[in-house]
């Protein structure tokens, strides 16, 4: 055990030493917390039950509405878009200053974003065909595919906003916020068509993205705006829930008449404003915490595989659920209806198993996100010798270029 600690400490020191002094580590910490919040949230509020001989999706929020505040902690997408807007605007400005064409810049970022997606799609295409041939009922396969593919909407929106960074980086958040409010008034007050709500998929997430772009321009150099965002967002969200008829849950609940997330509502956007305000207030404490090499190493390593973690966390949960069926079709917290405190306690005990399965997925598929490892350079052969000396490569996990973590989360 002491040897493992020593090796980890040495690795953390190398990562810390390889990080530029000018890097704002709080940005990476916010991104890591946002990704891990989504992962943990999905593992806690998504359940697969063995109903009618197959697997069906449900949620403890559908059976225990008093758990709605759990979604306030783990629905962290607004923070991810905030950081995305900040890094995207900074990256594009840097690319322009270096004469990098827009096409090259956006291709590099989107390529890093979508390379790991291809691995997920190929594996699940093969798995689905195998399950069908094995006699698994189509409804079960449809349930599993929905869990795998549903997070991809987030990547499509993020990719679109990334590509539009030159157009939206100077746009203030007030304009997309006004669009969200107008769409909700049309939908709920004047009986507008349901399809109009999908306008908010772009407009709603554009609000934190443009806040992030404003952050990159120094809009939050002073402390005053962040508490206003936090306080205003909290008050507006509470008013919309208490008197506006919006659901308390900030994630979708199976069977609910209205979701705050699909498509985003005004309540989800004001809640996101509160989250962004809190995130901006936490920058300085996070920056201080990230000065510790061990804490920074953990954040840096998560960022290097952020998309891999996001894309495979549902597969990891489903793999554990499926393997559990080999033991019993009624394992508490895994296959049972999430309708009691006992289910919550049992689900918490399954989280380490989900994490272990995710670690296996990470080991197998992280290279699709990080790209092929460069071949180590050969040193020139000294005159009069017959051997070529190969340099010893630094492990990829500690070879941190100045933009490595940014590319990992926002390419």
Structure characterization notes:
The chain is 66% helix and 2% strand. The protein has 411 residues and is mainly α. The protein has one domain (2-374, 381-410). A two-stranded antiparallel sheet has the order 1-2. A hairpin with a 2-residue loop joins strand 1 and strand 2. It starts with a helix and ends with a helix.
Q: Brief description of this entry?
A:
The chain is an all-alpha fold. Helix content is 66%, strand content 2%.
What would the keywords be for this entry?
411 residues, mainly alpha, two-stranded antiparallel ribbon, 2 strands, 2% strand, disordered C terminus
Order of helices and strands: HHEEHHHHHHHHHHHHHHHH
Task: Give the mean pLDDT.
Answer: 87
Tell me the major beta sheet: 2 strands, antiparallel
Strand segment count: 2
Task: Please give the alpha-carbon distance between the first and last residues.
Answer: 37 Å
Shape: globular
Gyration radius, in Å: 23 Å
| Number of H/I helices | 18
As a percent range, the share of strand residues is under 5%
| Residue runs with pLDDT of under 50 for 5 or more positions | 373-377, 381-411
What class, by secondary structure content?
A: mainly alpha
Percent range of helical residues: 55-70%
For the largest sheet, list the strands in their spatial order.
Answer: 1-2
Number of domains: 1
């Amino acid at each position: 055990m002491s040897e493992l600690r020593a090796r980890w400490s040495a690795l953390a020191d190398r990562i810390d030493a390889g990080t530029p002094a000018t890097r704002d580590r709080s940005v990476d910490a916010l991104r890591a917390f946002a990704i891990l919040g989504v992962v943990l949230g999905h593992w806690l509020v998504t359940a697969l039950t063995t109903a009618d001989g197959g697997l069906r999706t449900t949620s403890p929020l559908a059976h225990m509405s008093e758990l709605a505040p759990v979604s306030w902690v783990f629905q962290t997408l607004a923070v991810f878009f905030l950081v995305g807007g900040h890094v995207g605007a900074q990256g594009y400005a840097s690319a322009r200053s270096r004469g990098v064409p827009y096409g090259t810049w956006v291709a590099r970022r989107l390529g890093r974003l979508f390379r790991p997606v291809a691995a997920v799609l190929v594996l699940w295409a093969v798995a689905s065909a195998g399950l069908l041939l094995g006699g698994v009922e189509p409804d079960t396969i449809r349930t599993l595919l929905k869990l795998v593919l549903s997070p991809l909407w987030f990547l499509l929106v993020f990719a679109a906003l990334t590509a539009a960074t030159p157009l939206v980086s100077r746009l203030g958040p007030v304009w997309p916020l006004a669009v969200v409010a107008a769409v909700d008034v049309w939908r709920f007050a004047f009986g507008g068509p349901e399809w109009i709500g999908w306008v908010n998929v772009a407009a709603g997430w554009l609000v934190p993205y443009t806040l992030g772009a404003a952050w990159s321009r120094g809009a939050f150099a002073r402390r005053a705006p962040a508490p206003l965002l936090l306080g205003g967002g909290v008050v507006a969200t509470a008013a919309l829930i208490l008197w506006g008829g919006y659901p308390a849950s900030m994630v979708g609940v199976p069977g609910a008449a209205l979701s705050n997330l699909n498509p985003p509502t005004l309540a989800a956007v004001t809640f996101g404003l509160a989250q962004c305000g809190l995130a901006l207030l936490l920058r300085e404490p996070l920056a201080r915490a990230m000065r510790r090499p061990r804490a920074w190493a953990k954040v840096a390593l998560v960022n290097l595989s952020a998309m891999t973690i996001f894309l495979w966390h549902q597969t990891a949960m489903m793999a554990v659920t499926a393997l559990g069926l080999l033991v019993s079709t009624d394992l508490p917290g895994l296959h049972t209806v999430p309708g009691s405190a006992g289910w919550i306690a049992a689900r918490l005990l399954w989280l380490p198993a989900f994490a272990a399965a995710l670690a296996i997925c990470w080991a197998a598929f992280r290279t699709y996100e990080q790209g092929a490892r460069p071949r180590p350079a050969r040193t020139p052969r000294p005159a009069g010798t017959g051997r070529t000396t190969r340099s010893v490569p630094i492990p990829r996990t500690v070879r941190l270029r100045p933009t490595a973590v940014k590319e990992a989360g926002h390419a």
